[in-house]
């Protein structure tokens, strides 16, 4: 590859691909966080894969098959140990929207100069929303500010 001839970046986005046990449940979970399905694959009348967009970030979900030649039945939660960080303008807005909809999220706290709130989806994938702040490290959002 000739690096001198390239004037614009070739790689534009990384999109995590999550294998999920129940795609309908996962889609509902992410819809409650304001993700929007912008692409999908329907196979034999069933949703098998989708692209969920939030701002300029995205996730892909695909339900793993439990039977057949391409089946994959994991022994535990497939998302355990996987964390995806979303850089936001306002992570607190994500936290507040999740709380209003009854989605469990960690109380926002400042770490590394950023507000951070994390959630765990139905398959154990950890999604974290962060946004810059000038507040001191370990500042926690108070109960009165929460919603």
CATH homologous superfamily placement: 2,3-Dihydroxybiphenyl 1,2-Dioxygenase, domain 1
Q: Give the biggest sheet.
A: 4 strands, mixed
The residue-averaged pLDDT reads 90
Do you know the CATH topology?
A: 2,3-Dihydroxybiphenyl 1,2-Dioxygenase, domain 1
What spatial form do the alpha-carbon principal axes imply? Answer: globular
How many distinct domains?
1
Corresponding CATH architecture: Roll
Q: Give the termini separation.
A: 51 Å
The rounded Rg comes to: 18 Å
SSE run: EHEEEEHEEEH
Can you tell me the residue ranges where pLDDT is under 50 for at least 5 consecutive residues?
Answer: none
Strand order of the largest sheet: 1-4-3-2
- Number of helices, where a helix is a run of at least 4 consecutive DSSP H or I residues: 3
Secondary structure category? alpha/beta
- Using the coordinates above, name the CATH class: Alpha Beta
Helix content: 10-25%
Q: Work out the strand percent.
A: 25-35%
Number of strands: 8
Provide a compact summary of the structure.
With 147 residues, the protein is an alpha/beta fold. The protein has helices spanning 23-31, 91-100, 143-146; strands at residues 17-20, 36-43, 46-54, 57-63, 83-87, 109-111, 114-120, 126-132.
Outline the structure in words:
It is a single chain. The mean pLDDT is about 90. This protein has helices spanning about 25-30, 90-100, 145; strands at about 15-20, 35-45, 45-55, 55-65, 85, 110, 115-120, 125-130. It is globular and about 55 Å long. It is α/β, with parallel strands linked by helices and about 150 residues long. Helices cover about 15% and strands about 35% of the residues. The strands form two sheets. It has a four-stranded mixed β-sheet with strand order 1-4-3-2, covered by helices on one side. A four-stranded mixed β-sheet has the order 5-8-7-6, with helices on one face. It has one domain (about 15-65, about 80-145): Roll (2,3-Dihydroxybiphenyl 1,2-Dioxygenase, domain 1).
């Amino acid at each position: 590859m000739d690096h001198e001839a390239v004037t614009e970046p070739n790689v534009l986005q990384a999109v995590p691909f999550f294998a999920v046990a129940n795609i309908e449940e996962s889609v509902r979970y992410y819809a409650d966080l304001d993700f929007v399905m912008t692409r999908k694959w329907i196979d034999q009348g069933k949703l098998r894969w989708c692209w969920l967009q939030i701002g300029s970030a995205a996730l892909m979900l695909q339900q793993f098959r439990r039977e057949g030649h391409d089946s994959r039945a994991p022994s535990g939660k497939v998302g355990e140990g996987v964390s995806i960080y979303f850089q936001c303008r306002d992570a607190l807005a994500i936290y507040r929207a999740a709380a209003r909809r009854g989605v469990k999220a960690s109380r926002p706290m400042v770490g590394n100069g950023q507000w951070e709130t994390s959630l765990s989806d139905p398959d154990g994938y950890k999604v974290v929303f962060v946004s810059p702040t000038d507040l001191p490290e370990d500042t926690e959002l108070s109960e009165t500010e929460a919603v």
